[in-house]
Design goal:
Number of domains: 1
CATH class: Mainly Beta
Strand content: 25-35%
Helix content: 10-25%
Order of helices and strands: HHEEEEEEEEHE
Low-confidence stretches: 1-60
Shape: globular
Number of helices: 3
CATH architecture: Beta Barrel
Mean pLDDT: 80
CATH superfamily: Calycin beta-barrel core domain
Strand order of the largest sheet: 1-2-3-4-5-6-7-8
Largest sheet: 8 strands, antiparallel, barrel
Distance between the termini: 23 Å
Amino acid sequence: MTQRPRPGATAVQPFDDRRTSHAIGAMATAFVVGGVAAWFAMGAARSATRARLAGPADGAPLMRAPLQVVAPVDLQRYAGIWHEQARLPNRFQKQCAGPVSAEYTPQPDGTVQVRNRCLREDGNFDEAVGTARVVPVAGQPGAGRLEVRFAPAWLGWLPMVWGDYWILKLDRDYQVSLVGTPDREYLWVLSRAPRLEDAVLQAELDYARSLGFDTGKVMLTGR
């Protein structure tokens, strides 16, 4: 990609002390399992709130309507390196002070390996490796709706460790991609080129604004 794993999340190095690792792992498991019920309750409340905001019955604005994803998306063509051009600020990329890239590699089991990399203020690179999986959408084969996990694989059964990765806009040549989340809290503009033309970038941001994203807070990171 934790509360919402996403591209750019900081990789965590394993403990060297085996006994310490097991102890901490047990504590983490107890904490996570103990919080599942509360998490589901909060999720239900959030879903109800979003339904009130976006439901047509109460006259919600068009820009708050449920987001649609690109379909179909060829993950083999989507694979490779993408360079971040802009993003909405998020806590898991605070350490990134320079160029940010994401590399996607399809796996035999149908998942996609995600490798995020960014330059920190101290001149060193920060890297995180995760897994993305496709979320089926009824009536839209190959829809660009994915979930990404950067938490350890043994926590993969928990819904809370998976973060949304929705491809909202993608050009025919697979050169520019607009990625966001259904709650409109996270947004990224990605391109194959290290630097995207200003007019093209602005067009992506204008489209994102039409969908209800607060582009006034966007950080330009590919400059």
